[in-house]
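Entry 0007
Protein: Aquaporin
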Amino acid sequence: MTLVRRAVAELVGTAFLVMAVVGSGIAATRLSPDDVGLQLLENSLVTGAALVALILAFQPVSAAFNPVVTLVERVLGLVTTRDAAALVVAQVVGGALGAVLANLMFGLDAVSVSTHDRSGGGLWLGEVVATLGLVAVIFGSVRRGRADTVAYAVGGYITAAYWFTSSTSFANPAVTLARTLSDTFAGIAPGSVAVFVLMQLVGGALGLGLVLLLHPDPELPRPDVTEETA
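Output (structure tokens):
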């Protein structure tokens, strides 16, 4: 499997993920203009469903769609430094492309810099929690030999995390950067990005520590019911 194929998978997958996030946010505000709760519900369900589909489709090639996930893979020795750098660049480029396409599909300017300020201790803590949980869900599943469940686990987790985290669970630096390019429901002001990304990296590091604590042996088979209840 060539690095080019993996990079293309990451670029296209991240582009579609951002289109799902931004596009559904635009659609939600138009379809339910007077109900923010319903807008968030629509946005979260579409994002979760898209993640399941995209991971299932691209996982045989590469389906991180997230620089934090790729960095964790690098720390675990699953990818080389060169490959990780290329995949992160592809994710960032794909995310930007997805935001532009979402804007254009809904008749907006290709780029409209977001003015949606997202700052404050609660939101920053929300990003730590959201990213920690995402890393734990992905790599906890993988290290227990259940990689085939990752698509459903991630889709379900992100759908829920939209609601139980104060930040609505960005949990992804590439998606965060892309969302600055759309001054719509899902947007984030450029001035809010740096701390969001920092908190995502902190959450990723904490998530990695938790994964290594709970699943130190990636070859460990899933125990049967007798072993778990003994």
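Curator remark: Residues 3-219 form a domain with the Glycerol uptake facilitator protein fold (CATH 1.20.1080.10). DSSP finds nine helices and no strands in the chain.
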